[in-house]
Amino acid sequence: MKIALGHTSHPGIKRDHNEDTYGIDLDKGLFLVADGMGGHDHGEIASALARDHILNAITNGIDIKQAILDANQEIINSSLEKPGDLPMGTTIALLKINGKSFNCAWVGDSRIYKFTNNKLTPLSSDHSYVQELVDQDLITTEQARSHPHRNVVTQALGVTDNSEIAVSEAHGKIKNHDKFLICSDGLTEEVDDANIEAIMSKKIDPKEISDQLLIQALENGGSDNITAIVIELS
């Protein structure tokens, strides 16, 4: 299938540098977003380590889950060599397209969405404190958006040991004109799913979609780094 692509990354309005990163390997149909943990030291290093290790590992035939676990260990090892009281960490959200099927994997609260038949569907589920509350029916999804602990992740590369980390995965089929969005929480913090769906439904190319998502997030406050990859298949 042919791939049309749009991508953007921005530090946001309230951050002085960008700890997000993203990676693309069109030959392998591989796309990922990594969000370095802003409350930890060297978040931008952690996200770059995750990106580079995972892209290289999958190119060399290592499966997605193992590539993520190996990246986690590399970040942990690197963190031990760096000064600071806290380990460096990063989320990861990854999509791999194989012909008319896809696989995705994630750790943390960066997200993966599929847009098909004019409907936006989350493929990922956040590894976060508030998502656990939602799953237990203790709060609603809408309450989670304004919860004071909404940015607390329960898992991340570099801070969760491989013996305890849970790499979540999903897979499915692709139809012509399906779209995917991979993004950091700097986007979803400011733009809810209904507005993401409205922008994704526009008959414009993926680059324009990614730009409009970024603009909306900035207009709504831009409180964190914002990264988005938009993919359309035909």
Q: What are its keywords?
A:
7 helices, globular, single chain, 234 residues, alpha+beta, Phosphatase 2c, domain 1, five-stranded antiparallel β-sheet, 31% helix
Kindly report the spatial arrangement of strands forming the biggest sheet: 1-10-9-6-7
Question: How many strands in all?
Answer: 10
Q: Write the H/E string, N to C.
A: EEEHHEEEEHHEEHHHE
Q: Beta fraction of the residues?
A: 25-35%
CATH architecture assignment: 4-Layer Sandwich
Low-confidence stretches: none
CATH topology: Phosphatase 2c, domain 1
Shape: globular
Number of domains: 1
- Taking all residues together, what is the mean pLDDT? 93
Give a brief rundown of this model:
This protein is α+β, with helices and mostly antiparallel strands and 234 residues long. It has helices spanning 43-59, 64-80, 129-135, 141-146, 185-188, 193-200, 206-219; strands at 3-10, 20-25, 30-35, 92-98, 101-107, 111-116, 119-122, 168-173, 179-183, 226-233. The protein is globular and about 50 Å long.
